[in-house]
Amino acid sequence: MAVGVFLLLIAVAGLVGAVNHHQVLLFFYMIILGLVFIFQFGISCSCLAINLSKQTDVINASWSVMSNKTRDELERSFDCCGLFNLTTLDQQDYAFCTAICKSRSPTCQMCGEKFLKHSDEALKILGGVGLFFSFTEILGVWLAMRFRNQKDPRANPSAFL
């Protein structure tokens, strides 16, 4: 929410600067939009660069610190049991599973597989959307720079500054 409000304020500043031909406001709009581009481009590239082994490490680390209540909720919502079935701890998780799939069939799909599929898909979508919007920000910087260097049509042409 805070990021959205920040971006909305930046957009309003650019709009006010463009309507009033305010060069200083447009200059700071360009600088801030350029910094937002760098940040968003870096995050988008990192979303696209995370491979399955790193995602597996993150899922394993978060599963180990997760409370039992949260695990139960995840297992019920994803309809799966356990994480990756690699250790005896994961086999205990499978034994205490309350997901619906356990009553339908003797073996449920492991949650780790579903988490990996879901996270990989989400990271690709987020990375692609982030790259698209980061390059539209560069377009905004370029347009602001072009508009900033134009003369104000309301200005007196015989005035020096």
Q: In words, what does this structure look like?
A:
It is a single chain. The chain has one domain (2-148). 75% of the residues lie in helices and 0% in strands. It is built from seven helices and no strands. It has helices at 2-19, 23-49, 52-65, 68-78, 88-95, 101-104, 111-148. It starts with a helix and ends in a 13-residue tail after the last helix.
Could you provide a short overview of the structure?
This protein is an all-alpha fold. Helix content is 75%, strand content 0%.
Write the layout of secondary structure elements.
Layout: H1 2-19, H2 23-49, H3 52-65, H4 68-78, H5 88-95, H6 101-104, H7 111-148
Helix pairs in contact: 1-2, 2-7, 3-7
Keywords: Membrane, Signal, Transmembrane, Transmembrane helix
GO cellular component, one term: membrane
Pfam family, one: Tetraspanin
